[in-house]
Amino acid sequence: MMLMKQIPVIKKAELRHKETIQNLMQFYFYDFSEFIDLQVSDNGVFGPYAYLDNYWQESRRFPYLIEKEGKLAGFVLVSEIQEENDQYWSISEFFIMKKFRLGGLGKLAAHQIFEKHKGNWQVSQIKPNKPAQVFWRKVIGEYSGEQYKERNEEGRVIQSFCNKIIKK
Length: 168
Fold this sequence. Notes:
Number of helices: 4
Largest sheet: 7 strands, mixed
Oligomer: single chain
């Protein structure tokens, strides 16, 4: 009997999941503190994520949980950005718990997120976070058939691509 590889479940986070994401943010901030100056407060925790409430208050923000085999594995925060003459999707925050990394879960989760939100995309990483840049180049490259552009802007590396559905 052949076992099928378990595909991660990306599910929209409901308001009742906000505390779960807030708790996972502690691990996310811990990982991120390797690249930027983040400090814990006197009680030993990182401060709150300033925009978390907005993901349940604004129609252009989308919080997701990532599960693998029924176990919580991470989260993704997606935003629809509307600028003067530009509209695109952006991954604001992306986190996979370490025990679930390096097995392709992050790539599958990202590809599922791209499929949920068709259109123009911009995914950015801070310049010091080299592992994230390697990850996103590979993930976006595979997803887009290497049809993406990359630029450096204001201390960030940004990959952009389009996954619009072409109607015939």
